[in-house]
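Why does residue order matter? Because the sequence determines the fold. Keep that principle in mind as you read this record.
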Amino acid sequence: GDPTKHQDYKNCTKKLLDDGDGYEEKGSSQLLPGDVRRLLHHLLSAPSLVNLQMAVVIIISILCFLRCDEFSKMACEHFLDHMFFIPKVSKVVEELVLKVKGKSDPNWVTLKLNADHKYTDLCGVRMLLVHLFLIDWKGGFIFPNMTELHEPPTDGIFLSQMDHDKFNKDLQALCAIVLPELKDLKIGAHTMRKTAYAFAICGSGDRDDIRKSARHAPGSKDAPAYSKDADAHFETHKKNPNQLNNLTQWHNIRIEQATN
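Structure:
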């Protein structure tokens, strides 16, 4: 059911309001890992390139704390293949590395996308590589628009970008179908980043590492707000455990002093 209707959640939220200097949840909604699993399962149960791309965008945006304009612009040159970790013995891709420069970043920031061998349904590496293979990607933008996705270029170089406004509208519609109990859910530009905090905190991540991975400045007002949302959800999960919210231990994804 909807965790926000659970009495433990309401009690926890009230305490946060009492202790949090007037804090209240605003703006884009935050999803729990179980919510994300349900969305991905729905998308991948009806295989299509459109559904797969949407699933990949959801999980990559969460795992890398991406804003809408950042995932839509993701292209070949953002991936640092000389830093990928692929052991010679297993030849299994363990880490992909990419650089991101958002509206608040003075410089490029290098992030790791780690393979998840415990919960493969949330493995961004697997999903991304399958997506690229199926669209016969050779270069250009990672997430093209619908026209190019349906009629891929013969040379495999994708020149169009996904419309992130359309993505948000499609995701809102998808949530209405898959998560009907979340009636007040608001999908917005920061939903994936807020959800990334939920994943990291549910995965017992270090708070300072989470903030750095999200590229939040030390004095950011968003980081404490996102954390409090995630804390409230996590408290509900701990008191009323749901295996769909189980995650791999979260680790810092930011690489400092990387050579881009």
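The beta strands are 95-100, 109-114, 139-140, 157-158, 254-255.
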